[in-house]
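Lay summary. Proteins are chains of building blocks that fold into shapes, and those shapes determine what they do. In this project we predict the shape from the chain. Here is one chain we studied, written as its sequence of building blocks.
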Amino acid sequence: MSGGSGSGTKDGSSPKIIITKEISPVSIKQGKEAKITVTVYNHGALPVNDVEILDTCLPELPVVWGNSRYTIPSLSPDDTRILTYTVRAEKAGIYRLNKTTVMYADVDGNYSMSYPDSAKITVIRSLLAEPDEEKSEDILVSFMKFIDGLKSFS
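And here is the predicted shape, written in a compact code that computers can read:
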């Protein structure tokens, strides 16, 4: 979780934006989907305006539902907006998701940016998955070498 604070307004107060990013589940099988939730909360006493949320996704976890970009014209004090989208795990591995970027303006028009901590997901390869093309080629090459080795015994 990360809070952003602008340069402050004329009356000395500054925005207090709290941003969280969560992924669920945190461990999935290759080919399955996970839900990403970004929450933006205005904990300050004044509204923030022109809020832009950009959550870039890894190529191994493409968006299959929803949108990872969102614009909020204004966020009042104690107000929350939630951005939710779904990704599909294309490749096994442990991935740290890219940090979300949130930009917003205070009531005087001063812009600030905030970056919450990123989340991590583990994608497990299916036990029954077909071998990758590269591995298939490696197996074929090994098999051909094996056959060539047999020929030398005859």
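What the prediction tells us: Confidence is low (pLDDT under 50) at residues 1-7.
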